[in-house]
Amino acid sequence: MGLEEYKGKRNFTTTPEPGGGIRASPHPSRIFVVQEHHASHLHYDMRLESEGVLRSWAVPKGIPEKPGQRHLAVETEDHPLEYAEFEGTIPEGEYGAGEVKIWDSGIFEPLVWEKDKIEVVMKGDRLSGRYVLVRFRRAGEKDWLLIRAKD
Ligand code: MN
Predict the structure, then answer these.
(1) Among residues 5, 94, 89, 90, which one has the least CA distance to residue 53?
(2) How confident is the model at residue 7, as a pLDDT?
(3) Could you tell me the distance, in angstroms and rounded to a whole number, from the CA of residue 100 to the centre of ligand 1?
(4) Which stretches of the chain drop beneath a pLDDT of 50?
(5) How far, in Å, CA of 60 to CA of 73, rounded?
(6) Fewer CB near the last or first residue (10 Å), C or N of the chain?
(7) Smallest Cα–Cα separation from 34: which of 18, 50, 55?
């Protein structure tokens, strides 16, 4: 946890992304964002607030929307809370080069928050309902499954 990896991967004199630090939530509930990221491969970055940062997963196939659907979600470095408002183009040559657009944002309610399992109720404009993230160790150390649960 922490933002060292996030900061280490970026050059803030060239990327428009926020530097930021660990800080208190801007909202009484926990915030989330899903960003559509047109990097070398299009993917969706799902970020959930926890302990002053945004825990982050890259979801190549997008957020599952039908109950029972599950998609691979690869955990990436924690991002600063300010990143929830970021949209823009990360320049060529920078980490994650390409356009970033907010696909959805809102708040969520954590039901389970454990090392290997996270269960939340999403309250966004597009996403609503119960989602489960479970570690998928057979696939890889950073791999999780993101499951649209039945409400
Ligand atoms: Mn990304």
Answers:
(1) 5
(2) 95
(3) 8
(4) none
(5) 7
(6) C
(7) 55
144 Cα: distance to centroid of ligand 1 (angstroms): 16
Q: For position 23, what pLDDT does the model report?
A: 85
Ligand 1 centroid – CA 56 distance (Å): 9
With 0-12 CB in 10 A as exposed, 13-18 as middle and 19+ as buried, what is 78?
Answer: buried
- For tokens 């050059």, the residue is 11
Pick from 52, 49, 35: nearest CA to 118: 49
- Domain tally, the chain: 1
Task: Give 52 Cα–ligand 1 centroid separation in angstroms.
Answer: 20
- All residues at 6 or more sequence positions from 3 whose CB lies less than 8 Å from its CB, including other chains: 20, 21, 22, 53, 77, 78, 79, 80
User: Which token pair is 60?
Assistant: 């190549």
Burial profile 55-71: b = 16 or more Cβ within 10 angstroms, e = fewer: bbbbbeeebbeeeeebb
For residue 111, what are the domain limits? 4-148
Among candidates 135, 136, 133, which has minimal Cα distance to 147?
133
pLDDT at 131: 98
d(CA 63, CA 70): 9
